[in-house]
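Researcher: Let's try something more involved. This one mixes different molecule types, so please make sure each is placed in the same coordinate frame as the others.
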Amino acid sequence: MMNQHSRLHPDQADAAVETAIRQVRAGDVQGFAAVVHRFERPLRAWLATHAPPGVDIDDIAQTSFLAAYTRLDEYATGTNFAAWLFTIARYQLQTETTRLRRIADYRSRYAPDLLARELDRRTADATSDQDSRLDFLKECLEAIDDTRRRFLTWRYDEAIPLTEMADRSGRSVMAIKKQLWLLRRQLQECVEGKVAAAET
Amino acid sequence: MSGNHPSNQHPDQPASHWAEERFATLWTDYLEGELDADGVAELNTLLAADEQLVMRAADLYQLHRRLGVLATQRRDAAAATEASSSFVRDVMRRLPADGDALARGVMARIAPRNEEGRAEIGAGWRGARRWERLLIGGGLMAAVAVALLMLGSQMVRDGLPQKDLSDTAAHATASPAARFASLARARFLGRETPARETAVGLDERYVLSAGLVEIAFPLGATAIIEGPAVFRVCGMDCLAVDAGRCSVHAPEGAEGFRVETPATRVIDRGTRFVVNVDETSTTEVQVIEGAADLIAKADHSSAIHRVVSGGVARHDPAAGEGRIVTTAGGADRSVYRAGLPDRLISYSASLSYPVPLAAGDPSKDRTVNGTFASVSPVWNNR
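Model: All components are placed in one shared frame. Result:
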């Protein structure tokens, strides 16, 4: 069930957010639900692409909204609430990733340290082109033939084990891994190509 | 591990080719959750030797996450799911208690007024700014709390298991031992915000209008109180909460720490629990870890209701003398505060954000291992 806020034109949606913020400041706590509805999906998507392994995306998203609510008086009405909220989320994420890195066994349990640091750096330098990559990825996926796209469907939509993918396709697990590697690499190159084309 | 070890590298194979192939194998295993500690170490070694490889790893990782986001979007669209609404409900439930509602509830218990008086108060209340309402409501809250304590404390104390009188005397004369271990945006009515590590006045009533305070008790227990709240330290192992919410951690050695509410006594039996007292003096105890005993002060039998980890107990004074309702497995871990926010630089909106916004709903990371205590909002107390 799509909420009404996601059907609004972006300008209308932002105006609705400003209205909701004024209501919250006037004492209507429930008015904040409109703000959460508006930014829940893009915020969680942004966190998903910037958070290293081991981070609970939903928890960070929730605490970001809580922090925004608590500091709502500091937001200048009519400016860019999305930017303000995402700045809060960025700091929340960095705090959490710092905490995880300090856990002695994080490196062996979750992520190569260098990967986590690079993701951290990208979070700090996050630019506005991240959402276009999601759209480009959709286009790149559609360009892949069904025979090969099924591996991605099995992996991400159905989330089945590699052994089951091997059974279904009649291939070995090693071959499945190779296929996934090639598909991911192809998609990455496709997305980067579209980004480069968009910039020219 | 396979035979693709550096020492087994073909002499004619360029090192970079070998590294590329090895990266492909290790990276896929990593994303599929099949990389063990040795594999992570080897991957780290590869990445450390080639900065470009780090960039590629990050690119591929983000691609992997975006594929998950798209899959979740498809799933949600296909199922017409209420996952989004559920998330919004979860956020709304975690919002700080509405100070206005709490103050209004306390005001409703003040001596009766005529209808006109109520209407005037209501109109004035609605016309006031939020901070003014909180300030006014808080001041009235404090006055009512004092009155209630004076009227009710003697009545309810008679029904309780009495502590040793010498213990009581010791508490009355001992210098305050609890201290403010940490504060986050804490604002008090009628007093300046105390500095960290200052003592909490024994049996002094504090009205916390906003923010968070962490109180450390001498025997090791800690309590994090969320504004708006009215509380006082009633002993070396005793915290009285007349209104508001507190998260208590009583480690080994601090068992027996108790929280006194207007109508109940909560005794810790190790280790973590949340006590919430609303404007009707309804007490709710959620045990996050360990166990706690709940006693209704109006229950002359002083029956003890034990609540164990994951359980919830609720006492509504209006529902029946001494009646406590317990529920197994109903505790919401997200309401427990394990700590106060870190200090932080101030926010500045430096991130540009595109319009229109992409609809995204990330999938869960398979390697997620979330903690039970939520991460507090990040701010400083200056």
